[in-house]
TrEMBL record:
It comes from Pontibacter amylolyticus. InterPro entries: Ntn_hydrolases_N, Peptidase_T2. The lineage of its organism: Bacteria, Pseudomonadati, Bacteroidota, Cytophagia, Cytophagales. This is L-asparaginase. It holds the Pfam family Asparaginase_2.
Amino acid sequence: MQNITIAIHGGAGTITPASMTPELEKAYKQALSHALDQGYQVLEKGGSALDAVEMAVVLLEDSPLFNAGRGSVFTKEGKHEMDAAIMCGKTLEAGAVAGVRNIRNPVRLTRAIMEHSDHVFLSGYGAEEFARKYNIDFAPEEYFYDKRRYQQWREVRDTDIFMLDHTDERKFGTVGAVARDANGDLAAATSTGGMTNKNYNRIGDSPLIGSGTYANNKTCAISCTGHGEFFIRAVVAYDISCLMEYKGYTLQEACEEVVMDKLVKFGGEGGLIAVDGNGKLALPFNSEGMYRAYRRGGQEGRVSIYKD
């Protein structure tokens, strides 16, 4: 069990000690630690990487602290539109959703799409119909209401401005997890509520296989968080996998090339979590901070927010 590994993230951006109260920092760390420990326990008991990343992301979706699931931001219409994806590194099977409403845990819906359909990507009303067919839990609008999120939206709802989760922190709100299980299989999952005041059914990188989410046993598993338009244009997750598969880069080298060089050169801000087939981790980000945590077999977990 020495090579079982899991990493999670809860968003990246201008996250500094000055923008955080001690109480809020403690709450973030507790939520990250809980999701990490539960995901790790799945691996420790011999569970699959898919089960572990799903478990971790579900718990992050259940927390109002993160912009996914319950904590999703408000759209231009004052609603919640959520995106998510999951991918199996062993089979390259994947499931994804975009623009779904009232789904309690979008990541559970992506798993159902992957396992019970011939499709990868469903959106909107059709995805919700699929969710009903496979008994995915729904929740009323009140479940997704958060006073802080609502205030953010009220400040810009009558303008054409959209915000990256927070007005003052510039936090890119997404949650995700990657894992390697005892069999050496990899998996990745990502979930998000998108941008505050987003219009026109905007979709970011999180549900796009190869941009915000990717897993391949030959290379790595990746979940991204950042300004989605840039991550889409750079096809970030797949680019890292390709550098490893075709050019022989290590995981760390590939992540540094893409996140710290390629993205920076054309204005892309954010980060990602990644694990390779040997259980090695990389958690690069070019922003001020990234909510993140990881744990390897036989070791204690580590939770971080700011730059080390």
